[in-house]
Amino acid sequence: MDYSILIGGEAGQGMDTLTHILEKTLKRCGYYVFSYKDYMSMVRGGHNFMQIRFSRSPVYTYSSKVDIILALSQETIDIHRWKLKDKGVIIADERFNKEKNTLSLPLGEIARDLGNKRVIGTLGLGGILKYFGLPMDKAKEVIKDEFSERLIDINIRALEAGYNRVENRYDLNTYEDKNIIINGNQGVALGAIAAGCRFYCGYPMTPSTSILSYMAKKSEEIGIVVDQVEDEVAALNMALGASYAGVRAMTGSSGGGFALMVEALSLAGVTEIPVVVIDVQRPGPATGLSTRTEQGDLRFLLHAGHGEFPRMVIALRNPEDAFYQTARAFNLAEKYQIPVLILSDEYLADYTTTVKPLDFNKIQIERHISGTEAVTDEEYKRYKITPSGISPRIIPGKIPGQVVLVDSHEHDEWGHISEDVDNRINMVEKRMRKLDRLKEEVEEPWVIGKERPENLILCWGSTYGAVREVVYRLDEEGVSIGALVFGDIWPFPTKRLVDMGRRAKRIIDVEQNFTGQLDTLVRQESSIRCTHKILKYDGRPLGGDELYSRLKEEVL
Known about the structure:
The protein is α/β, with parallel strands linked by helices. The protein is 38% helix and 21% strand. The protein contains 19 helices and 20 strands. An eight-stranded mixed beta sheet has the order 6-5-4-1-3-2-14-7, with helices on both faces. The chain has a seven-stranded mixed beta sheet with strand order 9-8-10-11-13-12-18, with helices on both faces. Strands 15-17-16-19-20 form a five-stranded mixed beta sheet, with helices on both faces.
Protein backbone atom coordinates (compact mmCIF):
# COMPACT_ATOMS: atom_id res chain seq x y z
CA MET A 1 0.00 0.00 0.00
CA ASP A 2 1.18 3.52 -0.71
CA TYR A 3 0.30 6.92 0.75
CA SER A 4 0.45 10.42 -0.71
CA ILE A 5 0.84 13.89 0.77
CA LEU A 6 0.37 17.27 -0.91
CA ILE A 7 1.88 20.45 0.54
CA GLY A 8 0.81 23.70 -1.09
CA GLY A 9 1.34 27.41 -0.60
CA GLU A 10 3.16 30.44 -1.92
CA ALA A 11 6.80 30.80 -2.88
CA GLY A 12 8.67 32.04 0.17
CA GLN A 13 6.69 30.02 2.72
CA GLY A 14 9.46 27.46 3.17
CA MET A 15 7.77 24.57 1.39
CA ASP A 16 10.97 23.37 -0.22
CA THR A 17 12.67 23.04 3.17
CA LEU A 18 9.58 21.42 4.68
CA THR A 19 9.32 18.91 1.85
CA HIS A 20 13.02 18.10 2.09
CA ILE A 21 12.71 17.38 5.82
CA LEU A 22 9.61 15.22 5.30
CA GLU A 23 11.30 13.27 2.48
CA LYS A 24 14.33 12.50 4.61
CA THR A 25 12.17 11.63 7.61
CA LEU A 26 10.12 9.12 5.63
CA LYS A 27 13.27 7.63 4.15
CA ARG A 28 14.83 7.25 7.61
CA CYS A 29 11.63 5.52 8.69
CA GLY A 30 12.46 2.90 6.05
CA TYR A 31 10.06 3.91 3.27
CA TYR A 32 10.57 4.33 -0.45
CA VAL A 33 9.82 7.94 -1.35
CA PHE A 34 8.88 9.75 -4.55
CA SER A 35 8.60 13.54 -4.32
CA TYR A 36 7.56 15.83 -7.16
CA LYS A 37 7.31 19.63 -7.07
CA ASP A 38 5.37 22.10 -9.17
CA TYR A 39 6.66 25.66 -8.78
CA MET A 40 6.25 29.00 -10.51
CA SER A 41 9.06 31.24 -11.77
CA MET A 42 8.81 33.82 -9.01
CA VAL A 43 10.65 34.34 -5.74
CA ARG A 44 7.53 35.14 -3.70
CA GLY A 45 3.83 34.61 -4.20
CA GLY A 46 2.06 32.49 -6.78
CA HIS A 47 0.99 28.94 -6.08
CA ASN A 48 3.50 26.14 -5.58
CA PHE A 49 2.90 22.63 -4.39
CA MET A 50 4.82 19.45 -3.62
CA GLN A 51 3.55 15.88 -3.69
CA ILE A 52 5.20 13.09 -1.74
CA ARG A 53 4.27 9.46 -2.25
CA PHE A 54 5.73 6.77 -0.03
CA SER A 55 5.46 3.01 0.34
CA ARG A 56 7.28 -0.07 1.52
CA SER A 57 7.82 -0.91 -2.17
CA PRO A 58 9.68 1.22 -4.75
CA VAL A 59 7.65 4.17 -6.07
CA TYR A 60 8.16 5.40 -9.64
CA THR A 61 5.66 8.22 -10.15
CA TYR A 62 3.29 10.49 -8.28
CA SER A 63 -0.38 9.77 -7.53
CA SER A 64 -3.34 11.94 -8.55
CA LYS A 65 -5.09 11.15 -5.24
CA VAL A 66 -3.68 12.09 -1.85
CA ASP A 67 -4.32 11.08 1.76
CA ILE A 68 -3.51 14.41 3.28
CA ILE A 69 -3.20 18.03 2.13
CA LEU A 70 -1.21 20.52 4.17
CA ALA A 71 -2.57 23.86 2.96
CA LEU A 72 -0.42 26.90 3.68
CA SER A 73 -2.75 29.05 1.55
CA GLN A 74 -6.45 29.17 0.67
CA GLU A 75 -5.50 28.67 -2.98
CA THR A 76 -4.10 25.24 -2.15
CA ILE A 77 -7.50 24.14 -0.89
CA ASP A 78 -9.36 25.64 -3.83
CA ILE A 79 -7.10 24.05 -6.45
CA HIS A 80 -6.37 20.64 -4.96
CA ARG A 81 -9.33 19.57 -2.85
CA TRP A 82 -10.53 17.27 -5.67
CA LYS A 83 -7.36 15.21 -5.21
CA LEU A 84 -8.28 14.24 -1.66
CA LYS A 85 -9.21 10.60 -1.11
CA ASP A 86 -12.64 9.93 0.41
CA LYS A 87 -11.20 9.45 3.88
CA GLY A 88 -8.37 11.93 3.46
CA VAL A 89 -7.90 15.11 5.48
CA ILE A 90 -6.89 18.72 4.87
CA ILE A 91 -4.72 20.33 7.55
CA ALA A 92 -5.06 24.10 7.36
CA ASP A 93 -5.06 27.23 9.48
CA GLU A 94 -8.44 28.04 11.00
CA ARG A 95 -8.62 31.33 9.06
CA PHE A 96 -9.08 29.42 5.78
CA ASN A 97 -12.47 28.33 4.47
CA LYS A 98 -13.54 25.02 5.90
CA GLU A 99 -14.10 22.17 3.46
CA LYS A 100 -15.28 18.64 4.03
CA ASN A 101 -12.63 16.67 5.92
CA THR A 102 -10.76 19.83 6.92
CA LEU A 103 -8.87 19.80 10.19
CA SER A 104 -8.75 23.52 11.08
CA LEU A 105 -5.96 24.33 13.50
CA PRO A 106 -4.72 27.63 14.94
CA LEU A 107 -1.38 27.20 13.17
CA GLY A 108 -0.68 30.92 12.87
CA GLU A 109 -1.53 31.55 16.52
CA ILE A 110 0.66 28.67 17.73
CA ALA A 111 3.54 29.91 15.55
CA ARG A 112 3.23 33.41 17.01
CA ASP A 113 3.19 32.00 20.53
CA LEU A 114 6.35 30.07 19.74
CA GLY A 115 7.94 33.30 18.55
CA ASN A 116 8.43 32.63 14.83
CA LYS A 117 5.64 32.68 12.26
CA ARG A 118 7.79 30.72 9.80
CA VAL A 119 7.46 27.50 11.81
CA ILE A 120 3.92 26.93 10.50
CA GLY A 121 5.35 24.36 8.10
CA THR A 122 7.02 22.46 10.93
CA LEU A 123 3.71 22.47 12.83
CA GLY A 124 2.13 20.87 9.78
CA LEU A 125 4.97 18.35 9.57
CA GLY A 126 4.19 17.23 13.11
CA GLY A 127 0.52 16.82 12.20
CA ILE A 128 1.38 14.75 9.13
CA LEU A 129 3.59 12.37 11.10
CA LYS A 130 0.92 11.93 13.78
CA TYR A 131 -1.76 11.27 11.12
CA PHE A 132 0.27 8.32 9.84
CA GLY A 133 1.25 7.17 13.32
CA LEU A 134 4.96 7.71 12.71
CA PRO A 135 7.24 8.73 15.59
CA MET A 136 8.91 12.12 15.84
CA ASP A 137 12.44 10.93 16.58
CA LYS A 138 13.54 10.65 12.93
CA ALA A 139 12.14 14.08 12.14
CA LYS A 140 14.01 15.57 15.10
CA GLU A 141 17.23 14.04 13.78
CA VAL A 142 16.64 15.62 10.37
CA ILE A 143 15.83 19.01 11.90
CA LYS A 144 19.12 18.90 13.80
CA ASP A 145 20.92 18.09 10.56
CA GLU A 146 19.21 20.72 8.42
CA PHE A 147 18.77 23.80 10.64
CA SER A 148 21.31 26.10 12.20
CA GLU A 149 21.80 25.85 15.95
CA ARG A 150 19.59 28.85 16.73
CA LEU A 151 16.59 27.37 14.86
CA ILE A 152 16.72 23.78 16.09
CA ASP A 153 14.91 24.23 19.40
CA ILE A 154 11.99 26.29 18.08
CA ASN A 155 11.43 23.87 15.18
CA ILE A 156 11.46 20.85 17.48
CA ARG A 157 8.92 22.58 19.74
CA ALA A 158 6.79 23.36 16.68
CA LEU A 159 7.03 19.74 15.55
CA GLU A 160 5.81 18.55 18.96
CA ALA A 161 3.00 21.12 19.06
CA GLY A 162 1.71 20.05 15.64
CA TYR A 163 2.05 16.38 16.53
CA ASN A 164 -0.08 16.82 19.64
CA ARG A 165 -2.88 18.61 17.73
CA VAL A 166 -3.73 15.71 15.39
CA GLU A 167 -5.11 12.22 15.95
CA ASN A 168 -3.55 9.34 14.11
CA ARG A 169 -5.50 7.47 11.44
CA TYR A 170 -2.76 4.95 10.66
CA ASP A 171 -0.22 3.15 12.79
CA LEU A 172 2.65 2.74 10.40
CA ASN A 173 5.79 0.92 11.42
CA THR A 174 9.37 2.03 10.94
CA TYR A 175 11.99 -0.10 9.23
CA GLU A 176 15.72 -0.22 8.63
CA ASP A 177 16.82 2.50 6.24
CA LYS A 178 19.05 1.09 3.47
CA ASN A 179 18.56 3.58 0.65
CA ILE A 180 19.73 7.03 -0.41
CA ILE A 181 17.54 9.89 -1.61
CA ILE A 182 18.48 11.70 -4.80
CA ASN A 183 17.12 13.73 -7.71
CA GLY A 184 18.04 13.63 -11.39
CA ASN A 185 20.43 16.58 -11.41
CA GLN A 186 22.28 15.17 -8.42
CA GLY A 187 22.56 11.86 -10.27
CA VAL A 188 24.11 13.68 -13.24
CA ALA A 189 26.58 15.57 -11.05
CA LEU A 190 27.63 12.45 -9.16
CA GLY A 191 28.02 10.54 -12.41
CA ALA A 192 30.32 13.25 -13.75
CA ILE A 193 32.35 13.20 -10.54
CA ALA A 194 32.63 9.40 -10.66
CA ALA A 195 33.80 9.58 -14.29
CA GLY A 196 36.66 11.89 -13.41
CA CYS A 197 35.24 15.19 -14.63
CA ARG A 198 37.64 17.93 -13.59
CA PHE A 199 36.06 20.96 -15.24
CA TYR A 200 32.41 22.02 -15.24
CA CYS A 201 31.16 25.38 -16.39
CA GLY A 202 27.78 26.85 -17.17
CA TYR A 203 25.49 29.82 -17.01
CA PRO A 204 22.54 29.46 -14.61
CA MET A 205 19.38 28.46 -16.46
CA THR A 206 16.48 26.64 -14.87
CA PRO A 207 16.22 23.66 -14.62
CA SER A 208 19.90 22.84 -15.18
CA THR A 209 21.27 25.23 -12.55
CA SER A 210 21.40 22.77 -9.67
CA ILE A 211 24.01 20.69 -11.54
CA LEU A 212 26.24 23.75 -11.58
CA SER A 213 25.56 24.57 -7.92
CA TYR A 214 26.05 20.96 -6.78
CA MET A 215 29.37 20.71 -8.61
CA ALA A 216 30.44 24.06 -7.15
CA LYS A 217 29.56 22.87 -3.65
CA LYS A 218 31.72 19.77 -4.07
CA SER A 219 34.50 21.41 -6.09
CA GLU A 220 37.12 21.82 -3.36
CA GLU A 221 36.37 18.44 -1.81
CA ILE A 222 36.67 16.59 -5.12
CA GLY A 223 39.21 18.78 -6.88
CA ILE A 224 37.04 20.08 -9.72
CA VAL A 225 37.29 23.50 -11.34
CA VAL A 226 33.77 24.94 -11.57
CA ASP A 227 33.14 28.24 -13.33
CA GLN A 228 29.94 30.24 -13.69
CA VAL A 229 30.55 31.91 -17.03
CA GLU A 230 29.03 34.96 -18.71
CA ASP A 231 26.81 33.03 -21.15
CA GLU A 232 26.31 29.67 -22.82
CA VAL A 233 28.44 30.63 -25.81
CA ALA A 234 31.41 30.88 -23.46
CA ALA A 235 30.40 27.75 -21.56
CA LEU A 236 30.88 25.20 -24.34
CA ASN A 237 33.94 26.98 -25.73
CA MET A 238 35.57 26.91 -22.30
CA ALA A 239 34.68 23.23 -21.86
CA LEU A 240 36.31 22.52 -25.23
CA GLY A 241 39.41 24.40 -24.15
CA ALA A 242 39.65 22.39 -20.96
CA SER A 243 39.18 19.13 -22.85
CA TYR A 244 41.82 20.12 -25.43
CA ALA A 245 44.19 20.59 -22.48
CA GLY A 246 43.51 17.02 -21.36
CA VAL A 247 40.93 17.16 -18.58
CA ARG A 248 37.46 15.68 -18.72
CA ALA A 249 35.02 18.55 -19.19
CA MET A 250 31.28 19.10 -19.17
CA THR A 251 28.76 21.88 -19.51
CA GLY A 252 24.99 22.07 -19.31
CA SER A 253 21.95 24.24 -19.83
CA SER A 254 18.34 24.06 -20.92
CA GLY A 255 17.15 24.28 -24.53
CA GLY A 256 17.51 28.05 -24.85
CA GLY A 257 21.06 27.94 -23.54
CA PHE A 258 21.93 24.92 -25.65
CA ALA A 259 20.80 26.91 -28.69
CA LEU A 260 23.62 29.37 -27.98
CA MET A 261 26.12 26.50 -27.85
CA VAL A 262 25.35 25.22 -31.33
CA GLU A 263 28.22 26.97 -33.15
CA ALA A 264 30.69 25.62 -30.61
CA LEU A 265 29.12 22.18 -30.99
CA SER A 266 30.20 22.19 -34.63
CA LEU A 267 33.63 23.32 -33.47
CA ALA A 268 33.77 20.18 -31.28
CA GLY A 269 32.82 18.16 -34.35
CA VAL A 270 35.58 19.46 -36.63
CA THR A 271 38.30 19.61 -33.96
CA GLU A 272 37.33 16.16 -32.63
CA ILE A 273 37.52 17.32 -29.03
CA PRO A 274 35.57 15.13 -26.58
CA VAL A 275 33.01 16.91 -24.43
CA VAL A 276 29.81 16.08 -22.54
CA VAL A 277 26.85 18.47 -22.75
CA ILE A 278 23.51 18.10 -20.95
CA ASP A 279 20.24 19.73 -22.02
CA VAL A 280 17.76 19.73 -19.14
CA GLN A 281 14.63 20.42 -21.16
CA ARG A 282 11.83 22.83 -20.38
CA PRO A 283 8.93 23.96 -22.58
CA GLY A 284 9.74 26.36 -25.40
CA PRO A 285 9.80 28.17 -27.72
CA ALA A 286 12.03 30.94 -26.34
CA THR A 287 11.64 31.38 -22.57
CA GLY A 288 8.51 29.22 -22.66
CA LEU A 289 7.64 27.88 -19.21
CA SER A 290 10.91 28.18 -17.37
CA THR A 291 10.02 25.99 -14.37
CA ARG A 292 7.98 23.33 -16.18
CA THR A 293 8.82 20.17 -18.08
CA GLU A 294 8.71 18.90 -21.65
CA GLN A 295 10.46 16.54 -24.07
CA GLY A 296 10.62 19.01 -26.94
CA ASP A 297 14.34 19.05 -27.78
CA LEU A 298 14.94 15.55 -29.14
CA ARG A 299 15.02 16.57 -32.81
CA PHE A 300 17.03 19.65 -31.91
CA LEU A 301 19.87 17.65 -30.35
CA LEU A 302 19.90 15.14 -33.19
CA HIS A 303 20.49 17.86 -35.77
CA ALA A 304 22.08 20.76 -33.85
CA GLY A 305 25.15 22.21 -35.49
CA HIS A 306 26.03 23.09 -39.06
CA GLY A 307 27.62 20.44 -41.22
CA GLU A 308 27.76 16.72 -40.60
CA PHE A 309 29.74 15.18 -37.77
CA PRO A 310 29.26 12.21 -35.43
CA ARG A 311 27.66 12.61 -32.03
CA MET A 312 25.90 10.49 -29.46
CA VAL A 313 22.61 11.38 -27.78
CA ILE A 314 21.56 9.71 -24.51
CA ALA A 315 18.25 10.28 -22.69
CA LEU A 316 18.15 9.78 -18.92
CA ARG A 317 15.31 7.66 -17.51
CA ASN A 318 15.57 8.12 -13.72
CA PRO A 319 18.08 9.50 -11.18
CA GLU A 320 19.93 6.19 -10.87
CA ASP A 321 20.18 5.92 -14.66
CA ALA A 322 21.40 9.54 -14.70
CA PHE A 323 24.38 8.56 -12.56
CA TYR A 324 25.50 5.59 -14.63
CA GLN A 325 24.76 7.07 -18.06
CA THR A 326 26.52 10.35 -17.33
CA ALA A 327 29.63 8.45 -16.30
CA ARG A 328 29.35 6.34 -19.46
CA ALA A 329 29.03 9.50 -21.57
CA PHE A 330 32.53 10.63 -20.57
CA ASN A 331 34.09 7.34 -21.64
CA LEU A 332 32.29 7.41 -24.99
CA ALA A 333 33.13 11.05 -25.65
CA GLU A 334 36.81 10.41 -25.06
CA LYS A 335 36.96 7.08 -26.86
CA TYR A 336 35.44 8.45 -30.06
CA GLN A 337 36.56 12.09 -29.65
CA ILE A 338 33.02 13.38 -30.13
CA PRO A 339 30.43 15.43 -28.28
CA VAL A 340 28.07 13.28 -26.24
CA LEU A 341 24.74 15.04 -25.66
CA ILE A 342 22.58 14.10 -22.68
CA LEU A 343 18.83 14.74 -22.57
CA SER A 344 17.05 15.25 -19.26
CA ASP A 345 14.08 17.47 -18.31
CA GLU A 346 12.76 19.55 -15.44
CA TYR A 347 10.65 16.70 -14.05
CA LEU A 348 13.57 14.31 -13.81
CA ALA A 349 15.92 17.07 -12.68
CA ASP A 350 13.77 18.00 -9.70
CA TYR A 351 11.86 14.94 -8.56
CA THR A 352 13.38 13.14 -5.61
CA THR A 353 13.31 9.42 -5.04
CA THR A 354 14.95 6.71 -2.98
CA VAL A 355 17.33 4.32 -4.70
CA LYS A 356 19.88 1.75 -3.66
CA PRO A 357 23.26 3.32 -2.85
CA LEU A 358 25.06 4.18 -6.08
CA ASP A 359 27.91 1.80 -6.83
CA PHE A 360 30.95 3.91 -7.67
CA ASN A 361 32.92 0.69 -8.15
CA LYS A 362 30.90 0.02 -11.31
CA ILE A 363 32.31 3.16 -12.91
CA GLN A 364 35.47 2.41 -14.84
CA ILE A 365 37.33 5.50 -16.03
CA GLU A 366 38.60 4.67 -19.50
CA ARG A 367 41.08 7.31 -20.60
CA HIS A 368 41.96 7.29 -24.28
CA ILE A 369 45.11 9.36 -24.31
CA SER A 370 48.12 8.43 -26.42
CA GLY A 371 51.79 8.73 -25.51
CA THR A 372 55.00 8.87 -27.48
CA GLU A 373 53.88 5.88 -29.55
CA ALA A 374 51.48 8.22 -31.35
CA VAL A 375 54.39 10.12 -32.88
CA THR A 376 55.33 7.76 -35.71
CA ASP A 377 56.18 10.53 -38.14
CA GLU A 378 58.56 13.43 -37.80
CA GLU A 379 55.61 15.60 -36.83
CA TYR A 380 52.55 14.44 -34.84
CA LYS A 381 49.39 13.99 -36.93
CA ARG A 382 46.47 15.03 -34.73
CA TYR A 383 43.96 14.00 -37.43
CA LYS A 384 45.72 10.96 -38.78
CA ILE A 385 43.48 8.99 -41.12
CA THR A 386 42.79 5.59 -39.59
CA PRO A 387 40.46 2.67 -40.44
CA SER A 388 38.34 3.44 -37.33
CA GLY A 389 38.30 7.19 -37.91
CA ILE A 390 39.78 7.69 -34.44
CA SER A 391 43.13 9.48 -34.49
CA PRO A 392 45.77 9.30 -31.75
CA ARG A 393 45.21 12.06 -29.19
CA ILE A 394 48.06 13.47 -27.14
CA ILE A 395 47.96 16.19 -24.50
CA PRO A 396 49.51 19.53 -25.51
CA GLY A 397 52.89 20.06 -23.91
CA LYS A 398 53.34 16.45 -22.79
CA ILE A 399 55.65 15.29 -25.59
CA PRO A 400 58.65 17.54 -26.25
CA GLY A 401 58.77 19.00 -29.70
CA GLN A 402 55.23 18.02 -30.65
CA VAL A 403 52.42 20.50 -31.24
CA VAL A 404 48.71 19.65 -31.12
CA LEU A 405 47.09 21.81 -33.78
CA VAL A 406 43.36 22.58 -33.85
CA ASP A 407 41.44 24.77 -36.25
CA SER A 408 37.81 25.44 -37.03
CA HIS A 409 38.57 25.26 -40.76
CA GLU A 410 38.80 22.00 -42.60
CA HIS A 411 42.34 20.73 -42.14
CA ASP A 412 44.76 18.02 -43.13
CA GLU A 413 46.11 15.22 -40.94
CA TRP A 414 48.48 17.57 -39.13
CA GLY A 415 45.83 20.21 -38.46
CA HIS A 416 46.85 22.74 -41.09
CA ILE A 417 44.06 24.49 -43.02
CA SER A 418 43.36 22.76 -46.31
CA GLU A 419 40.84 23.31 -49.10
CA ASP A 420 42.10 20.39 -51.16
CA VAL A 421 39.18 18.34 -52.59
CA ASP A 422 40.66 14.91 -51.87
CA ASN A 423 41.62 15.95 -48.35
CA ARG A 424 38.07 17.19 -47.72
CA ILE A 425 36.59 13.88 -48.80
CA ASN A 426 39.07 11.92 -46.72
CA MET A 427 38.46 13.99 -43.60
CA VAL A 428 34.66 13.82 -43.80
CA GLU A 429 34.79 10.06 -44.30
CA LYS A 430 37.34 9.68 -41.50
CA ARG A 431 35.14 11.50 -39.00
CA MET A 432 31.97 9.70 -40.03
CA ARG A 433 33.63 6.25 -39.83
CA LYS A 434 33.47 6.62 -36.06
CA LEU A 435 29.73 5.95 -36.30
CA ASP A 436 30.35 2.38 -37.45
CA ARG A 437 32.07 1.49 -34.20
CA LEU A 438 29.86 3.76 -32.11
CA LYS A 439 26.80 1.80 -33.24
CA GLU A 440 28.32 -1.26 -31.57
CA GLU A 441 28.31 0.63 -28.24
CA VAL A 442 24.61 1.51 -28.42
CA GLU A 443 22.42 -0.03 -25.71
CA GLU A 444 19.01 -1.40 -26.59
CA PRO A 445 15.97 0.11 -24.81
CA TRP A 446 14.77 -1.29 -21.51
CA VAL A 447 11.93 -3.80 -21.75
CA ILE A 448 9.04 -3.51 -19.31
CA GLY A 449 6.33 -6.15 -19.09
CA LYS A 450 5.80 -8.78 -21.75
CA GLU A 451 8.36 -9.34 -24.47
CA ARG A 452 5.71 -10.41 -27.01
CA PRO A 453 2.84 -8.05 -26.21
CA GLU A 454 -0.19 -7.22 -28.30
CA ASN A 455 0.09 -3.62 -27.05
CA LEU A 456 3.57 -2.09 -27.21
CA ILE A 457 4.38 1.30 -25.67
CA LEU A 458 7.36 3.25 -27.00
CA CYS A 459 8.75 6.03 -24.81
CA TRP A 460 12.00 7.67 -23.80
CA GLY A 461 13.59 9.46 -20.88
CA SER A 462 11.64 10.47 -17.80
CA THR A 463 8.31 8.95 -18.89
CA TYR A 464 9.85 5.67 -17.69
CA GLY A 465 8.31 5.87 -14.20
CA ALA A 466 4.71 6.41 -15.30
CA VAL A 467 4.99 3.82 -18.09
CA ARG A 468 6.49 1.24 -15.74
CA GLU A 469 3.72 1.61 -13.19
CA VAL A 470 0.96 1.49 -15.81
CA VAL A 471 2.35 -1.54 -17.65
CA TYR A 472 2.34 -3.63 -14.48
CA ARG A 473 -1.07 -2.31 -13.47
CA LEU A 474 -2.60 -3.28 -16.82
CA ASP A 475 -0.79 -6.60 -16.83
CA GLU A 476 -2.51 -7.47 -13.54
CA GLU A 477 -5.81 -6.73 -15.29
CA GLY A 478 -4.99 -9.27 -18.00
CA VAL A 479 -3.96 -6.81 -20.73
CA SER A 480 -1.17 -8.06 -23.01
CA ILE A 481 1.17 -5.11 -22.76
CA GLY A 482 4.85 -4.24 -22.75
CA ALA A 483 7.05 -1.21 -23.26
CA LEU A 484 10.38 -0.17 -24.70
CA VAL A 485 12.00 2.74 -22.87
CA PHE A 486 14.76 4.30 -24.95
CA GLY A 487 17.88 5.68 -23.31
CA ASP A 488 20.32 5.68 -26.19
CA ILE A 489 18.69 7.84 -28.86
CA TRP A 490 21.46 8.29 -31.42
CA PRO A 491 22.75 6.20 -33.02
CA PHE A 492 19.26 4.72 -32.77
CA PRO A 493 18.94 1.08 -31.62
CA THR A 494 16.42 -0.94 -33.64
CA LYS A 495 16.92 -4.62 -32.78
CA ARG A 496 14.36 -4.92 -29.97
CA LEU A 497 12.09 -2.40 -31.64
CA VAL A 498 11.83 -4.44 -34.84
CA ASP A 499 11.54 -7.72 -32.96
CA MET A 500 8.72 -6.60 -30.66
CA GLY A 501 7.11 -4.14 -33.06
CA ARG A 502 6.39 -6.62 -35.81
CA ARG A 503 4.38 -8.79 -33.42
CA ALA A 504 2.34 -6.05 -31.72
CA LYS A 505 -1.19 -5.21 -32.82
CA ARG A 506 -0.98 -1.72 -31.37
CA ILE A 507 2.15 0.44 -31.01
CA ILE A 508 1.60 3.42 -28.74
CA ASP A 509 3.94 6.41 -28.72
CA VAL A 510 4.06 8.10 -25.29
CA GLU A 511 5.87 11.44 -25.18
CA GLN A 512 5.78 14.88 -23.63
CA ASN A 513 5.70 16.96 -26.81
CA PHE A 514 3.19 17.90 -29.52
CA THR A 515 4.67 16.29 -32.62
CA GLY A 516 5.67 12.84 -31.42
CA GLN A 517 9.40 13.27 -31.98
CA LEU A 518 10.29 9.69 -31.02
CA ASP A 519 7.68 8.37 -33.46
CA THR A 520 9.34 10.34 -36.27
CA LEU A 521 12.71 8.81 -35.42
CA VAL A 522 11.22 5.31 -35.19
CA ARG A 523 9.72 5.64 -38.68
CA GLN A 524 12.94 7.07 -40.05
CA GLU A 525 15.17 4.31 -38.69
CA SER A 526 12.93 1.23 -38.76
CA SER A 527 9.89 1.94 -40.98
CA ILE A 528 7.70 0.97 -38.00
CA ARG A 529 4.70 3.25 -37.50
CA CYS A 530 2.94 3.90 -34.22
CA THR A 531 -0.79 3.23 -34.40
CA HIS A 532 -1.61 5.53 -31.47
CA LYS A 533 -0.05 8.51 -29.73
CA ILE A 534 -0.47 9.73 -26.17
CA LEU A 535 1.16 13.15 -26.07
CA LYS A 536 1.25 15.75 -23.31
CA TYR A 537 2.60 19.28 -23.67
CA ASP A 538 1.04 21.44 -20.94
CA GLY A 539 4.31 21.71 -19.03
CA ARG A 540 3.24 19.28 -16.32
CA PRO A 541 4.66 15.76 -16.06
CA LEU A 542 2.76 12.71 -17.23
CA GLY A 543 1.78 10.74 -14.13
CA GLY A 544 0.82 7.09 -13.88
CA ASP A 545 -2.86 7.71 -13.18
CA GLU A 546 -3.24 10.04 -16.16
CA LEU A 547 -1.46 7.65 -18.51
CA TYR A 548 -3.61 4.75 -17.29
CA SER A 549 -6.82 6.70 -17.91
CA ARG A 550 -5.76 7.85 -21.36
CA LEU A 551 -4.72 4.36 -22.42
CA LYS A 552 -8.10 3.05 -21.29
CA GLU A 553 -10.03 5.81 -23.05
CA GLU A 554 -8.01 6.26 -26.25
CA VAL A 555 -6.37 2.93 -27.02
CA LEU A 556 -7.49 -0.21 -25.18
